[in-house]
Amino acid sequence: MSLLARLAPHLPYVRRYARALTGDQTTGDHYVRVALEALAAGERSLDAALSPRVALYRVFHAIWLSSGAQLEARRDDLSDDASQRLLRIAPRSRQAFLLTALEGFTPTEAAQILDCDFGEVERLIADAQSEIDAELATEVLIIEDEPVIAADIEALVRELGHDVIDIAATRGEAVDAVARKTPGLVLADIQLADGSSGIDAVKDILARLDVPVIFITAFPERLLTGERPEPTFLITKPFQPETVKAAIGQALFFHPRRTRQAA
Questions:
Q1: Helix (H) and strand (E) counts for the chain?
Q2: Alpha-carbon distance values, 216 to 141, 153, 160, 209, 233 (Å)
Q3: Measured at the alpha carbon of residue 88, what is the angle toward residues 160 and 124, in degrees to the nearest 5?
Q4: Which of 2, 22, 114, 174 has the CB geometry, 3.0–4.6 Å to 71, for a possible disulfide?
């Protein structure tokens, strides 16, 4: 199989990553092209011990470092809030965050791409997460009928610097809560106290508001049906606190509307 054939499935994703990293598709594409040219000319090679996708991203970063990492775009030229926020994060932390949050690499794979150890990647991700949490503080609606779980989620949300406007145990309570105050994020269970559906509650909310939603449920199969749209953020119970924290940061960061809601 030719080099191009091996890498072709991964090129759209490395282009996406390059654009997010630089804030500009033209600049990102330039460095992707340079990386491919270096591979074709034999100046760089894919590490056979790595998967083709990990190896390609590793070469991309080697090209970046060899050029002095001059991938910054003018902030006033950026067309969306997410790009502007990304460029306010320190470059190394930005890379680790994007590789895991946007591209779906594990921390171990990110460490291979960035040529560093696992501990450093975890620290870089934590640094990026802290910057994101501080900038994107918002009001959160929790839809959860189990009091203990609701309390755990509320504690995580407040630990990240967000406010909880209400905890709803039913579809009706969720709709009423939104009528009283607009949330900037919704965390929703599926099966609620009175037999109503968190899915229906979210549909009611999204009919009125453009707000990111994270489903936290013991019944993921009710959402992962193979039909579209499926939820972008889905956490299975029992959950790990760090998984919830990471999902909140990612949901707020990549959603287009990023301001604290007024009362």
A1: 12, 5
A2: 13, 10, 17, 20, 9
A3: 60
A4: 22
* CA dist 226 → 9, 190, 215, 247 (Å): 21, 17, 16, 21
**And the tokens for 133?**
């949490």
In sequence order, the 6+-apart residues with CB closer than 8 A to the CB of 49 are: none
Q: CA 255 → CA 28, 67, 205, 212, 213, distances in Å?
A: 22, 32, 16, 6, 10
Distance CA(6)–CA(18), nearest Å, equals 19
- Say if residues 100 and 122 touch (Cβ distance below 8 Å): no
**Which residue, 235, 201, 202, 203, is CA-closest to 220?**
235
From the centroid of its chain, how far is CA 228? 19
Q: Could you report the per-residue pLDDT of 84-124, keeping only the tens digit for each?
A: 667 778 888 989 988 998 888 999 999 999 999 999 999 99
pLDDT of residue 78: 45
Amino acid symbol at 114: L
Beta strands in the chain (DSSP E): 139-143, 163-168, 185-188, 213-217, 233-236
Q: What are the structure tokens assigned to 6, written together?
A: 């091996």
Find the range with the poorest average confidence among 74-78, 102-106, 122-126, 181-185. Answer: 74-78
What pLDDT digit, counting tens, does each position of 129-171 carry?
888 777 788 999 999 999 999 999 999 999 988 999 999 999 9
Which tokens in the block code for residue 222? 């009710």
